[in-house]
Every structure is written in C-alpha cells, then in structure tokens.
C-alpha cells in the first residue's frame, strides 16, 4: 500500500515579529527555509513573471515588450532560468540580506533534559535535513564549559535513525560544529547581552530568528525571559520561547506565571510544551477519527460506554523524589498529559486544521467538564515489596522525600463532559509509578450489542463481548480493535480477536521522538500541539479544587506494593460506574 506523503520535511510558515516584546508581526512562507532569492524590487520592475522553484531555481515566463533598452535587456538576462547564487552575483545584491538564520539557545544546557532529549532531537532533525541551511545551536547554563566540552557532552547522547545510518559520523561532526556554549547566570542581562553578540556573529547579517528553550526550573523562568527580552531578542526576525512544564501548581500560581511571562512576551511567542502531544499516536488521534468514516459516527455517547486513559511506569522516583514530592502524580501527569489527550479525543470537529481552530475546540471540551469531586478520585502511594529475591523500596525510602510525605504516586479519577456528545459517558483516568508495567494507552469500550443473537455463547460476562478500540501510545505503538469472531470448526464457539495495526510491523521507518516534532513545530511557528493560556486556565480550574481539598484534609494515600497493579480503590471507583479497567484483561 502506498504511503501518502507531501514532502520530506514540511513547508515552513514564519510568524515574523520584530522583537521578543511583541511588535508588528509579518507573515511569509517558503519551503525548506530557502532564502527569498528574488528581490521584490526586481520583480516589480521586470517584464516577466517570476516563480520560485523548490530546488532554488527561478523559472520565468517572458512577456514580450515593444522596445528594450540596454538596461531592460540586462534584466531579461537576469530573469532567465538562473540559480539563486547566480542571481545574486549578476544583480550585485548582498545575498545575506535575503537569507534568514535560526539560532536555537538551550537555556539549562547542562541538565538531563537537554542532554537526553533536546540535543538528540535537534541532531535527528539535522540528520533528516529538516533544519534550515543556516542555523546555530547555543547551550547556555551556569556551569563553566568550553565549546569543545559541550560538544563532547552532546556527542555521547546522539544517535542516528535506524533507516538512515549512512554517513552518520560525518553528519554528527557537521552538527557538532554548529554547537557552541556560553556560560552565564539566568538572571544576568549582561550575560545575555554577551550571548547576543555571539549570536549576531554567527547570524552574519542575515534575518535572525531566535528560539529559546527554557530547560530550567520554573522558579527562574521569569528572570531568564526578562533578560532574554532586554538583551538577546532578535532585532529583525522572530523570537520564540519554549516553556517546559510544570506551568504552576494550581490556578493561582499558573495565572501569576502567565501574567509574568506576558510582561515580556506575547501569547504567540510562548510555546508551552507538553511532549505527550508530540507522540505519534496522539498526533494520529484526529486522523483516525476525522479521516475514517467508520469511526466518526460512533464517536459519541450513543455507541461509546466509557473511555479510559491510562499511564503507568514500572519504576519509582529512585533518588529524584525531591522535585516529584512538590507536585505529585496528579500535577505531574494527569492535569497536563492525560487531560490534553482527553481534550483531543473528545473535541468537536474543528473548522480547519489551523492551530487556533483546534485549540478552540479543546478549550470548549475543558470548559464543559463537570467539576471534579473528591469521591471521584482515588490516590495511592507505593510501598516496599520483595519479589524474586529483590526488595524494592517504598516511596518514602527515597532520601529526597520526607518520611511523612502524603504525596500521591498513583491517582485514578472519573471525569464527565456535560455536553450533547458525551453526556453521561465516564472518562476514567489513572496514572502511577512503580506499577506492574510501563505504558500509555487510550481504551474506548463500546456499548453492548442490543438484542445480541449470540448472548448465550458469551455467558453471563457481557464485558467479554464488548468491542474495544485500543490506541497504544507507548511503548510498541499500535492501534487494535477487539471484535467477536467465530473459531474455525464445526461447532459455534466464539472468540475475541484483534484487528491490529502494529506500527513496527507496518512501517519500517523509525517513529520520531516527540521532542523532534515539537521542536520542528516551534521553529515553523506551528502552535497546534502547544498549550494556549486559556487551555491552561481551564485545565487548572478542573483540578485545583480537588487538589486543595486533598491537601487541606490531609487525605492519606492508599498503599500499594511496588510492582503491583495499583491500589484496590481504583477498581471500586471503576465499578461504581460499571466499568472494568481494560488494561487488567489478560488478553489486552
């Protein structure tokens, strides 16, 4: 079966703003970051129609003129099929004025996220020829480090695509030559001004577009943005800032953070990243629903009995509990990753694929959600457990965690959307650490077949006959639909079978990491997979009241053994709404 593909890397649309503080935005588009090779003045004065081809060649259509002067004759020669370099040389234009460059600054470059995710994602984009012709990458952190030391650190984490390993070492060397380092304080305008000088040197007089990735703790976001705004924003291109979660701890702190950011940035310049939105199967949600006639009519309360969004990790905090204990599993996973997936799943058909149209529909879903009640939430905390001669620690055994901590490492919740499409359908979420497996999936359980002729073949357990759509986000990405089927033979024995799209078997190409997609989107100015401020407000409005109630009442989390399926209370919560967790089915 043929694969549908437009181009190797997408065409890019820039939102061109004069500075980090806002200013007038200019919009222009072109493919593969190629420069605008024909000056507008020359186009206006010519007698020919000029078309920019994808390979950088200028194709023309000649319009006859009555009389040509020597000057017009020279123009005609210049407007013949000519490469962009030849154009610049003949016309005497400074090509750097018509080119743009992208400078990517990773603020917090010495941290784990930068080393494990951001630099490898940037290299993967470079390896796939998805970055512009002119780009540079700067690491910025407080640690003292030379360019060579940064390159050595980064080189240890870089990998090549499984399906394109050729020239890997050569491409890696070329990439590392584009990586530089500047040491400075996050709250020092002077240090950012020094960074600005280095960036300008590499930009070489071209239109400078700058992307700052804040891979730093949220308590220093504002100072870093303030310094970048005053000392290192672009003077003639766009400036964008990627902000990592957490976006506050509740509605109040999130509002303060947003208000502070908007002192120095416009909303269009803020890219709040949730890496789960960049995962292939989450990206495929809208395609699955809106591009397949068989699913869209079923996507409502009439046919769907419940929806389950499940996240599990098979490891605990293991020495990293200091950060986690301040937030807990609800803030860390449910309020952002899982709620964003729910909004994408449940939204109405957007007017278009434009970022604002999609985000408008997501906000409508979040604002339609019933307030979350404490009785619809179960929390847990893992305890020590021995298995196979190995003893696994409890959460409070982590030296960075207080011994009396009540921070949940597991949570389950039943949520409802009070609109015409989803009225009465329970959306069950659960997320936890130190569980029996690692994974993330969306399970859609359909209603029982009314008047089913084969009910007696299923016995009393009608759930065994329920059709179920499973979207496995990670690991081993897959989409499968559980159907009822006759077992071959002379008798009438029914079986539950899977119609399975297993990505590893169907597609030979390795699935890109979520950070690759999101970084590319930020460079392009594509905001569809980033969180808008009103989305964030609606998400916190849903969870803040129950979080405050849990903390004020000092609700004690239910204990569950390390490596188990979680606390028993989660099963009672599901049973209250006549639901059985789909991931507990031994067939899965």
TrEMBL record:
Catalytic activity from the UniProt record: D-glucose 6-phosphate + NADP(+) = 6-phospho-D-glucono-1,5-lactone + NADPH + H(+)
Locations listed in the record: Plastid, Chloroplast stroma
Pfam (any one): G6PD_N
GO MF terms held by the record: glucose-6-phosphate dehydrogenase activity; NADP binding
Pathway this chain belongs to: Carbohydrate degradation; pentose phosphate pathway; D-ribulose 5-phosphate from D-glucose 6-phosphate (oxidative stage): step 1/3
Origin superkingdom: Eukaryota
Residue ranges occupied by any Glucose-6-phosphate dehydrogenase NAD-binding domain in the UniProt entry: 106-284
Statement: the UniProt record of this protein carries the keyword Oxidoreductase: yes
Keywords: Carbohydrate metabolism, Glucose metabolism, NADP, Oxidoreductase
GO cellular component labels: chloroplast stroma
GO biological process, one term: pentose-phosphate shunt, oxidative branch
All residue ranges annotated as the Glucose-6-phosphate dehydrogenase C-terminal domain in the record: 287-581
Family annotation (InterPro entries): G6P_DH (IPR001282), G6P_DH_AS (IPR019796), G6P_DH_C (IPR022675), G6P_DH_NAD-bd (IPR022674), NAD(P)-bd_dom_sf (IPR036291)
Listed EC numbers: 1.1.1.49
Main location: plastid
HAMAP family per UniProt: G6PD
Family: Belongs to the glucose-6-phosphate dehydrogenase family.
Entry function: Catalyzes the rate-limiting step of the oxidative pentose-phosphate pathway, which represents a route for the dissimilation of carbohydrates besides glycolysis. The main function of this enzyme is to provide reducing power (NADPH) and pentose phosphates for fatty acid and nucleic acid synthesis which are involved in membrane synthesis and cell division.
Record protein name field: Glucose-6-phosphate 1-dehydrogenase
Lineage: Eukaryota, Viridiplantae, Streptophyta, Embryophyta, Tracheophyta
């Amino acid at each position: 079966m043929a694969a549908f593909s437009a181009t190797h890397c997408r065409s890019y649309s820039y939102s061109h703003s004069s500075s980090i503080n806002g200013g007038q935005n200019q919009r222009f588009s072109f493919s593969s970051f190629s420069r605008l090779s024909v000056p507008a003045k020359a186009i206006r004065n010519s007698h020919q129609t000029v078309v920019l081809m994808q390979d950088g060649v200028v194709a023309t259509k000649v319009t006859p003129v009555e009389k040509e002067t020597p000057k017009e004759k020279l123009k005609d020669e210049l407007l013949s099929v000519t490469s962009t370099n030849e154009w610049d040389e003949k016309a005497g234009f400074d090509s750097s004025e018509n080119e743009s460059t992208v400078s990517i600054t990773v603020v917090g470059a010495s941290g784990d996220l930068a080393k494990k995710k951001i630099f490898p994602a940037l290299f993967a984009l470079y390896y796939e020829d998805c970055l512009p012709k002119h780009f540079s990458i700067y690491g910025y952190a407080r640690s003292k480090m030379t360019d060579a030391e940064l390159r050595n650190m980064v080189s240890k984490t870089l990998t090549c695509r499984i399906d394109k390993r050729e020239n890997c070492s050569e491409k890696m060397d070329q990439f590392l030559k584009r990586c530089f380092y500047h040491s400075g304080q996050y709250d020092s305008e002077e240090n950012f001004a020094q960074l600005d000088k280095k960036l300008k040197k590499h930009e070489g007089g071209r239109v400078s577009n700058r992307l700052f990735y804040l891979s730093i703790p949220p308590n220093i976001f504002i100072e870093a943005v303030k310094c970048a705004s005053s000392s290192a924003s672009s003077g003639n291109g766009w400036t964008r800032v990627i902000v990592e979660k957490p976006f506050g701890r509740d509605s109040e702190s999130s509002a303060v953070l947003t208000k502070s950011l908007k002192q120095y940035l416009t909303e269009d310049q803020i890219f709040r990243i949730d890496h789960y939105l960049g995962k292939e199967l989450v990206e495929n949600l809208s395609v699955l629903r809106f591009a397949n006639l068989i699913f869209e009519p079923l996507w409502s309360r009439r046919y769907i009995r419940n929806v389950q969004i499940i996240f599990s990790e098979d490891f605990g905090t293991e020495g990293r509990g200091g950060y986690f204990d301040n937030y807990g599993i609800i803030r860390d996973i449910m309020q952002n990753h899982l709620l964003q997936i729910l909004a994408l799943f449940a939204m109405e058909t957007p007017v278009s694929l434009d970022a604002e149209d999609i985000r408008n529909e997501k906000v409508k879903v979040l604002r339609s959600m019933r307030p979350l009640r404490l009785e619809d939430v179960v929390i847990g905390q893992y305890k020590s457990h021995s298995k196979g001669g190995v003893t696994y620690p409890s959460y409070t055994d982590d030296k960075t965690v207080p011994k009396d901590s009540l921070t949940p490492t597991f949570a389950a919740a039943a949520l409802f959307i009070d609109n015409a499409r989803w009225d009465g359908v329970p959306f069950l979420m659960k997320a936890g650490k130190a569980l029996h497996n690692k994974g993330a999936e969306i399970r859609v359980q359909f209603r029982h077949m009314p008047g089913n002729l084969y009910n007696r073949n299923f016995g009393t357990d009608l759930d065994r006959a329920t059709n179920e759509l499973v979207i496995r986000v990670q690991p081993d990405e897959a989409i499968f639909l559980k159907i009822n089927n006759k077992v071959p033979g002379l008798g009438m024995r029914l079986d539950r079978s899977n119609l399975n799209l297993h990505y590893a078997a169907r597609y030979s190409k390795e699935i890109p990491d979520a950070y690759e997609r999101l970084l590319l989107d930020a460079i392009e100015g594509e905001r569809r997979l980033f969180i808008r401020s009103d989305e964030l407000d609606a998400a916190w409005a849903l969870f803040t009241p129950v979080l405050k109630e849990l903390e004020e009442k000092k609700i004690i989390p239910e204990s569950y053994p390390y490596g188990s399926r979680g606390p028993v209370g989660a099963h009672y919560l599901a049973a209250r709404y006549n639901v059985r967790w789909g991931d507990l089915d031994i067939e899965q």
